[in-house]
Amino acid sequence: xxxxxxxxxxxxxxxxxxxxxxxxxxxxxxxxxxxxxxxxxxxxxxxxxxxxxxxxxxxxxxxxxxxxxxxxxxxxxxxxxxxxxxxxxxxxxxxxxxxxxxxxxxxxxxxxxxxxxxxxxxxxxxxxxxxxxxxxxxxxxxxxxxxxxxxxxxxxxxxxxxxxxxxxxxxxxxxxxxxxxxxxxxxxxxxxxxxxxxxxxxxxxxxxxxxxxxxxxxxxxxxxxxxxxxxxxxxxxxxxxxxxxxxxxxxxxxxxxxxxxxxxxxxxxxxxxxxxxxxxxxxxxxxxxxxxxxxxxxxxxxxxxxxxxxxxxxxxxxxxxxxxxxxxxxxxxxxxxxxxxxxxxxxxxxxxxxxxxxxxxxxxxxxxxx
Amino acid sequence: xxxxxxxxxxxxxxxxxxxxxxxxxxxxxxxxxxxxxxxxxxxxxxxxxxxxxxxxxxxxxxxxxxxxxxxxxxxxxxxxxxxxxxxxxxxxxxxxxxxxxxxxxxxxxxxxxxxxxxxxxxxxxxxxxxxxxxxxxxxxxxxxxxxxxxxxxxxxxxxxxxxxxxxxxxxxxxxxxxxxxxxxxxxxxxxxxxxxxxxxxxxxxxxxxxxxxxxxxxxxxxxxxxxxxxxxxxxxxxxxxxxxxxxxxxxxxxxxxxxx
Lengths: 370, 260
Prior knowledge:
Strand content of chain B: 15-25%
Order of helices and strands of chain B: EEEHEHEHEHEHEHEHEHH
Number of domains of chain A: 1
Helix content of chain B: 25-40%
Order of helices and strands of chain A: HHHHHEHEHEHEHHHEHEHEHEHE
CATH class of chain A: Alpha Beta
Structural class of chain A: alpha/beta
Radius of gyration of chain A: 19 Å
Shape of chain A: globular
Strand order of the largest sheet of chain B: 5-4-3-10-9
Number of helices of chain B: 9
Distance between the termini of chain B: 51 Å
Strand content of chain A: 5-15%
CATH superfamily of chain B: Aldolase class I
Largest sheet of chain A: 8 strands, parallel, barrel
Distance between the termini of chain A: 27 Å
Helix content of chain A: 25-40%
Number of helices of chain A: 15
CATH topology of chain A: TIM Barrel
Number of domains of chain B: 1
Radius of gyration of chain B: 20 Å
CATH class of chain B: Alpha Beta
Largest interface: A-B, 26 and 31 residues
CATH architecture of chain A: Alpha-Beta Barrel
Oligomer: heterodimer
């Protein structure tokens, strides 16, 4: 039993028809329903019919987020361990055919980065790599966790999809949470975006959160890349996936990310444009659909937009991010995955959060809980 | 204001029957002011928010008020084993053997696991902790917790953070009736009137967080809760009259017993 079976019952076209058929009345019902919203309500909220209700959606999203998460925003920072990658992802700077210098951090280089990040106040870290099992496989991750575990309250990874046994090994070393985006749920085009490498196996990727759930991970982050396919349909599948995971792995917390494609080496423009207005609609729709899910926002977005989104449904933000291995101490832009859009320092972002009457939370976990 | 009876838990006596949670505030100074205004003498703080291995911690330093005691909580643990480890660490680094035991493996509704909570309470009570156990409003579980050494039971009024009030009223009434340890209604209290209702019902105390932290003016709301809890307790001690559905003007069924 896995999500694959449920996924196969929902063809891409059917999800699209369901969303685009929504009417004004459907949106009103979804907005003012008492109690929990279902997938059908989510489809209404991300549909074009919901556009005139954006202000009402924003107000509801604000209120629901305050009730569950209060006036707080959790801060985290990505740390790129490696830009080695054997996959081709047509939108990603680390793609194997891109001629950029490749680097995997040694222990010394990593500990330099850790020192720099800790000095900025971070306790929650997101480790990122491409997919290169020889250079950055489970053995390497295990060593990295051992080295850095004493320095952080929470460790998340965003790396290649792994097996349940692998996840169990890493959880035993202090791994707390895993982000793994499906990129797109469109089975017609998934293979076109991922023509080479293990990542081309869509079914394996779709079932990865199941393996994580069975391994007993504390938190799973899912999402679709915004810019590949119709964002309304892809997010319908994210909502379907989230509801499935919550039912089956009820001890796990979930988070959603909304990465909008950014310029990167070898990649110019996204296939589909997601406007700021669409982006706000999507955040609010996720929040109204699920009051408990965490929603995180990266530095892919501009400072002006991040400042406004802070209160609208977001629960966590990265700050001061670099997207290249060694980015905090080596400073070599040639290695990066994508251009960041918000270049403010963590202290500046924290000050912005405080200026809006919110508490920037640096620590909201502890290794003793692992 | 007229004094009400003090409340004894563990080795301590509390004059205030309002306990506070410390999450969700927009800033530490705001949290500090709300705590001070509420008159509370017991505040719970999540271990996961505290820098346990460092000398100075921002949350803790903003909670250092005269007469206010810390009640570390184990939010985030999923099993009794994890709870015991977390409790030991809390005792070491925060220098208190008081503990709010929260074991909720379900991270969405944060509903407590009764089996793990019972196991952990027994283990921790044996190790000398003053255990205040967060649980569903289950009267039998409350008696079982009492038997294994819980210092207080903390049944929920409604799912945490929902502000729905005393949805579990019928079970809370039985718990209050049967308990020989203090009953603290925790979770779900969203308005001062609901806190007063719990106190009138005979709860020994209430714990409030979201309703204060998320209010438009948390400090004013803290004061409103202080007054409501006090007035609810006063009403309880003053012994309220029974509620009647109809007026009792005459005794039609027993009038014949009166001498002519």
